[in-house]
TrEMBL record:
This is Heptaprenyl diphosphate synthase component I. The chain crosses the membrane at residues 16-36, 48-75, 87-105, 112-137, 143-167. Coiled coil: none annotated. The keyword Membrane applies. InterPro entries: Hpre_diP_synt_I, Hpre_diP_synth_I. The keyword GTP-binding does not apply. Keywords: Membrane, Transmembrane, Transmembrane helix. It comes from the Bacteria.
Amino acid sequence: MCFIGLEGIKLSAKKIVYVSILVSQALVLNIVESFIPVPIPVPGIKIGLANIVTLVTILMFGFKESLIVVILRTLLAQLLVGNLTSFLYSVSGGILSACIMFFVYKRYSKYFSLVGVSVFGSVAHNVGQLFVAALIINNFLIFSYLPVLMIAGIIMGVFTGLVANYFKKYIKNVKYDSKW
């Protein structure tokens, strides 16, 4: 059985179930993370637990599915605990992060481990959020905050990459239908 998804993409029922499970896992991690105090008391710094699921989605399926997971997770999280401005920050950072992680993973995986891919994604997430913030407040001096966010992004990216790397061996054991 096939369904027509976003932009005419044909999705099997099995794939829809897998992607839905990944969206719900990312949503749960996003909500749980909002209750975890970050050891560094700097605004905008988060662990990025939902990025673990984005990495896993890239490993399991690819680019389109990872974007679907990021967009749906962000939309649902903001409906539950956020507002419009935080949605714009989250979705822009999430999309840029997924794009960069997929590009680095597909193009440079022989040079960068999954931890390195995660670090690139984490830094890209911060850049995407700062860009939207600069547009909203109409002041690009906010990028002076980037070095602090980059250091935090590297640390958090290493953590999320290590966790995603742990799951990588289990992902290889999942058998996929070639018609996906």
